[in-house]
Amino acid sequence: MSEGTVARKQGIGELIRIKPYVQFMVSKVVSRFGDSIDSIAYSWMVYILTGSKLLMGTLLAVNFLPSIFLGLFVGALVDRMSPKKVIVLTNTGRGLFVGITALLFGLGELQVWHLFVITILNSLLECFASPAEVSTVPRLLPKSMLLSGNAMASSATRVAELAGLAVAGTLIATAGITWTILIDAGLFALSALLMSRVGYPKTSTSSNNDNTSFDSSDSPPARKSIFSEMTEAFHFMRKHVLLLIVSILFAFVNFCLMPFNVLRTPYVIETLHAGAGGLSLLSGLIVAGMVLSGLWLSHRGSNYRKSVLVIVGIVMLGLSYAMTALPAYMTSYQLPVAAVFCLMMGMGIPLATTPLASYLMEVTPSEMLGRVYALQTMLVVSVAPLGSLVSGALADWVALPILFIVFGVLLAMSAVLVLLSKTFRTVL
């Protein structure tokens, strides 16, 4: 029986019977719900506090620095630790830092340097949390269920984000920014508590079926120096050239998306003439598109080659991104038109990313997954600080719609890399 046939048979019904996977997903859903509320509140807070597009770009650039400079080292550390403990501790720490931010803002004591310090600390914790979450999935699911499992997890977390984005504008308007951010802090703490109850199976069902044993509290044994293990990640990626090509491709995609990520709040205020509710709507529709696309992938994705899904996803994302400039040249219905294209942007993201995330889990031994994922993340976000700074600087000289058109078209054109790469066509 082919792997695609197995994947189709082992759908959502089979996934929800795996209790540890469901427990892990619930914990992740709670943290993502809080994160999505915070993303609106934090962006609104920074713009109100500073009013500077350049500073917003600089803050986002700083957010990527820990991943770039420490990501691989942290990933190697995570491979030596219990992923469960890492997720519990990092969620607890992130809740604490978010809570401090809210209190400082509520007391009128929040300064710009506080934002930089807290951003770096939160990003450092995220460096630990992300590879731990990635290395958890293949320990809970067999290889044949990874595509469906990743798609379902993506859809579930996106639904949580959608719910958070839907209520964020209302919360800011009624409870205020301080209480809105404090809610996120509490949800991080709840997520940590839920994750502490996840029981890992004693026999790993990792992507390479290596039958390595892990229990809910023990870490994998450390056999080599951490620097040797970091070097192994480079050798592994060099051996699997597709992972390197993917990293370069998505580094460029990430760079192109920076203007939209940095300038979304000014875009809503200055171009669409909307408030926090408009920002919630656009962000929510991006997530809604990701949910719809993720659900489709979990049911039908295995019927198509991964390379085809990636190409369609990148083109859809790039062209929809460029079309978000259209409302600037309209006299009415600006927000609804922008909403349609944000929904389409969201639909393109899982098509491009989920097949490649599944491929990473399929080819990478579970004991190396943390550091290989961290290395790939480091490469992918390496140009993000430059993109953030360029976006913030250009926004003072170039109209936002022009920036969105230029970078959206460039993003769509990056799909040519997939078409031209023989490795993509033969492996995926």
UniProtKB/TrEMBL annotation:
Alphabetical keyword list: Cell membrane, Membrane, Transmembrane, Transmembrane helix, Transport
Pfam families listed in its UniProt record: MFS_1
Region (Disordered): 202-222
Top-level taxon in the UniProt lineage: Bacteria
Subcellular location: Cell membrane
Main location: membrane
Biased composition regions of type Low complexity, renumbered to the chain: 203-219
Bilayer-crossing regions: 54-75, 96-116, 162-195, 241-260, 272-296, 308-329, 335-360, 372-391, 397-420
UniProt membrane topology term: Multi-pass membrane protein
Domain spans labelled Major facilitator superfamily (MFS) profile: 1-426
SUPFAM superfamilies for the chain: MFS general substrate transporter (SSF103473)
Identification of the protein by name: DHA3 family macrolide efflux protein-like MFS transporter
Organism: Paenibacillus pabuli
Higher taxonomy: Bacteria, Bacillati, Bacillota, Bacilli, Bacillales
